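Two proteins were folded this term; both appear here.
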Amino acid sequence: MEALRPLLPKGWAIYVQFDSWYASAKLINYIRRQGWHVTCGLKCNRKLNGVRVDHLASALRHRRYTRVRITATDGNTTPYYVRTTTGRLSEVPDDVRVWFSKRHPRGKSSAYFLSTELTRSAQQALQGYGGRWSCEVENFYLKTRLGLADFRVRCYEAVDRYMVVVQLAWGYVERRFIQERCAQVKCYGDIIRRHQEEHARDWLIGALQMALETGAIEPVLQRFLRETV
């Protein structure tokens, strides 16, 4: 990040974004010491000016909502209803801006967001925070489809090599997605499925060709299913 600073246009700021699981005072303070800003989610039990944010949200229930529309990566827009306040987060030395957001004014559940940039609007903060979704999508595929989470009970060197292999595989998926994106390929899962189908087709063609060449089934079973005949 520091290396990018000279490349940024004058007046631009660096925003570090993460969800509520990582919104510790220690991390926020570290980011601010670098001269960067934070936009993040907050858990309901975090305290602003010594009061839980969910209790603050209840105290502001008579204040008028601000309606903002957030555009997703697919172009669809979603309205959110937001109330705003400013205060001091526990163990963070500078004031922060906090938003209490609902999908509907009469909705029962709220989401809480924070920004260390006090001049940032709800529209700017929530739209920027929405950009995190692409990271969540990548993490989902890396863990569930490419096996990133299956590193346990391995030595450090093996884990290190395993991570590199998984990231290389993801680079392959990303590149194919960029090149082949169309009506039939709308997400990374379509690329993974297409690759698996191609692999299965090559496997089947190889087995059939060997069967034609040898005129016997046993060698094919030994070669492709590793059966002991």
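Next, the second protein.
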Amino acid sequence: MITVFGEGRGFRVVWLLEEMGLAYRLRPVDLLADVSKDTEFLAINPAGFIPAIQDGDVTMVESIAIMEYLMARYGPTPLSPAPHDPAFPAYQQFLHLGEAGLAASVYLFLISREGGAERQNTGASKALEVFESRLGLVTRQLAHTPYLAGARFTAADISVTYALELAERTRAVTLGKTEQAYVDRTSGREAYKRAMEVCQATKVWAAEASAERNSRARDA
């Protein structure tokens, strides 16, 4: 059975596994605790970050790489268009943009924000600038198609949805109507809902973030 170590970006992996109907288990990893004492996890990923997976003799890290491995190993799947499919270029672009252009930029923004006065912080400002420029690519694509690779849902949507929800829940940005409608569409999938039930820490965080947004809206 496939073991997924950690939530966070591991939510992408769990969601993909639910979409594909593959057997797995989630093994929580608490990065806020002393991860150096988690010898089982460090045996899988000595670098100590999440997610990681163990699939038989295979161990892997990096959420997008893990997703590509699972689809190649256990596919074919409509979540990954074939190279000759007209949807393939957009699929590849947004699959990777969801991490390299969006989620990574949000992470850098949040780290800089911890020091306060983020808008005057050069690193935070640049990270937010990068995020917003890449978000523009998402918005432009969604003006023409319901999903990022075209008419059907793919793993690129898992990648980008995670990044947009990360940005929204951490108050890095406020999503526009187009992006919010897209997230509502992707997060309405049954596999997403099942993944959220498995990832209880993510579920709690999402609920807390939603409650805070609603409170701010009432106070505005």
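The chain has nine helices and four strands. The first strand starts at residue 2 and ends at 5. These notes refer to the second protein only.
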